[in-house]
Amino acid sequence: MRGRGLMIGVEFVKDRSTRVPDGETADAVAARAVDAGLLLLTAGIAHQVIRWIPPLDVTVPEIEEALGIFEGALAG
């Protein structure tokens, strides 16, 4: 994970040791999240980063809901 303030990026790689970007997985996770009601965008040269940019007035329950959707999208 990387980020500054409320903007956070989750980077997907095929192998942690080589850090080869995995845009295919990131795109699939983002698409599943959108289908479940959570808008996420990909970024990076290979679309390997999923960007989280919540509003400044986001609440804890909203974050928890978003993380639940993201967890489900990761599980496939």
CATH topology: Aspartate Aminotransferase, domain 1
Distance between the termini: 20 Å
CATH architecture: Alpha-Beta Complex
Helix-residue proportion:
25-40%
Tell me the overall shape.
globular
* Weakly predicted, low-confidence segments: none
What does the average pLDDT come to? 92
Quickly count the helices: 2
Strand content: 15-25%
Largest sheet properties:
4 strands, antiparallel
Overall structural class, as computed from helix and strand content, comes to alpha+beta
Description:
By secondary structure, the protein is an alpha+beta fold. The protein has one domain (2-75): Alpha-Beta Complex (Aspartate Aminotransferase, domain 1). Helices cover 38% and strands 20% of the residues. It has 2 helices and 4 strands. It has helices at residues 23-35, 60-75; strands at residues 2-4, 7-11, 41-43, 49-52. It has a 4-stranded antiparallel sheet, covered by helices on one side. Helix 1 crosses helix 2 (60-75). The longest helix is centred in the last third of the chain and has 16 residues, at 60-75.
Task: Please tag this protein with its features.
76 residues, alpha+beta, Aspartate Aminotransferase, domain 1, 4-stranded antiparallel β-sheet, 38% helix, 20% strand
